[in-house]
Design a protein that fits this description.
There is one protein chain. By secondary structure, the chain is α/β, with parallel strands linked by helices. The chain has five helices and five strands. The chain has a five-stranded parallel β-sheet with strand order 2-1-3-4-5, sandwiched between helices. The radius of gyration is 17 Å and the shape is globular.
Length: about 140
């Protein structure tokens, strides 16, 4: 499953291309939002909180995504933990908040684990919706 990534850091972009099979990398929130606009099932997003020196642009982007697609699975990345409290302020339902540190093996494992969890969540959501729709169609009451 494709991951949509918002980051301007070239080092991070290289890492994502190395460890993920199908990364879609964007450098501006606008590009990202346009790319996921038609994804109704729920995209998996990896959002770097700091874009071009603006610390909270990642939160604002996540907020817009969730408003338009509540099934979106969002993983936030930051250089340090001081921005973690804003997850509650923006109420974006973050799947994980990962500190980048040195982008070492522990970082990579945690990121891959979060992506697997996101895929599982989307599978459950889609399966539930499919089963609910099938159940609703079978149990329609005709009042004529």
């Amino acid at each position: 499953m494709a991951c949509y990534i918002l980051t301007t850091k070239k080092r991070d972009q290289r890492l994502f291309r190395k460890i993920l099979t199908d990364p879609h990398i964007f450098e501006t929130p606008r590009e990202l939002l346009l790319a996921i606009h038609s994804n109704k099932r729920g995209p998996i997003l990896i959002i770097d909180l700091e874009i071009r020196g603006h610390e909270k642009i990642g939160f604002q982007t996540a907020e817009l995504v969730k408003k338009n697609n509540p099934n979106a699975q969002i993983i936030l990345l930051a250089e340090d933990s001081r921005l973690a409290n804003y997850c509650f302020e923006y109420q974006v339902g973050v799947l994980d908040f990962i500190i980048k540190n040195d982008r070492d093996l522990a970082f990579q494992k945690r990121l891959l684990r979060a992506i697997e969890k996101a895929q599982y969540n989307l599978h459950k959501i889609f399966l539930y919706k499919t089963n609910f729709c099938a159940f609703s169609k079978r149990n329609t009451v005709n009042f004529n």
